Amino acid sequence: GITFDTGGYDMKPPMSMGPMKGDMSGAAAVAATICAAAELGLNVNITAYMCIAENMVSSTATRPADILTMYNGRTVEVNNTDAEGRLVLADGLARCGEDNPDVVIDVATLTGAMVVSLGDQTAGFFANDDDLAADIESASKEAGEPFWRMPLLEHLRSSLDSPVADLSNIGGRMGGSISAALFLREFVPADAKWAHLDIAGPALNGANPYGVVSKGGAGFAVRTLLSYLKSVQA
Fold first, then answer.
1. What is the C-alpha separation between 61 and 8, in angstroms, rounded?
2. 185, 128 Cβ separation under 8 angstroms
3. Which residues are catalytic?
4. 2-232 belongs to which CATH class?
């Protein structure tokens, strides 16, 4: 939930900054989903975690080459301050592990690389479990929100190595959305089924409405998450 993202000291170009008011779309989708699930009376046990921050330049802002200690004690070298969303999301993933979840689904406008891969009308997702992936694909089709499963390519994991910390917050130039997902995986609770939904493309629709997606802040992923929850409720 990055309420506004300037990029920090690795600042975004001015023309790319305005739409970053929508960088909190993942947290907004989670909030909307849990509210809707309660109103619908879904018989499923859900806990929502929203890690809210903004990425600005200030005397207390994160600096390039800073070493951060994460919620679970692991250390991360900040090699790009504009890869901040994964840092707050990683802490959320680590925190949720204290509640011993069976399934963890995170939602984020995480990477521009996903938009390059799939365009601005399709979201990508990663999963560590094929059954969960199939459930999300089915829910996506029922909801009318396009999602496409992306691979967790293990050979890209080494791009996150750091000589001074447990991890770097960015990988190499190639496969940026994949290395971001691999970074998050390092913080997923042990034995939990996990899916990471990268909705960077369709979250803030600047074009005409299409399908169920409205113009502006589209609430993308809420319908898919509700469809999934309906399918797994007791």
1. 7
2. yes
3. 12, 86
4. alpha beta
